[in-house]
Amino acid sequence: MKINEKKIILYKIETDNSWNLINIFDKKNNLTITQREGDMQCSPYILLNYNDMDSINFDVNKATINIKKYKKTPEYTDRVMSYILELIKYYDKILIKEYLIEALELLEWIENEVDVDINKINKYQIIKRIRNFSIDEILDLDNIKRKNSKDIMIQCAINILIEKYEEAKNNMNNMSKELLNKFKLYPIYNLYDKKTKVQI
Fold it and tell me: b/e string for 49-65 if b means 16 or more Cβ within 10 A?
């Protein structure tokens, strides 16, 4: 909802005869997700996409604190990872470093719950937006690339990170249309697009 050109995220609750709008981030409001273990309470922040983050009732620091209050089930950590990627996309839109710092903090929070190499790639794409890689970091990326030689998305992501853009372009040309469309939704593609301005 927009009020005087300011966006605010509200949740609509309907009853038989009426409806109410509530602040989805209010502590009194509980959200649940359905998972293998049954319904579980979760943070409302994990459902946001980057276009929601310019809302006046969104606070990235409060979001991190709130997200870390919940149990790290597989379904929840998947949602947290999606939220982290949305934070990176929002950084690309507004270039405020605070969003990358919060994304790094959450990556560290879930690092024992998710695939090690995927977590590292996401960490490195944040670092890439802040500074140049060290020699050790480049060697680590090369090791991840060799270890995942059959995974074209990981190959492409690392080629982008180490600025081998022609190789990344070849990787994308070898992806199915469905896989390529999926890859383009990840914020790592923004690094390629920004540097090359070539549409695949």
Answer: ebebbebeebebeebbe
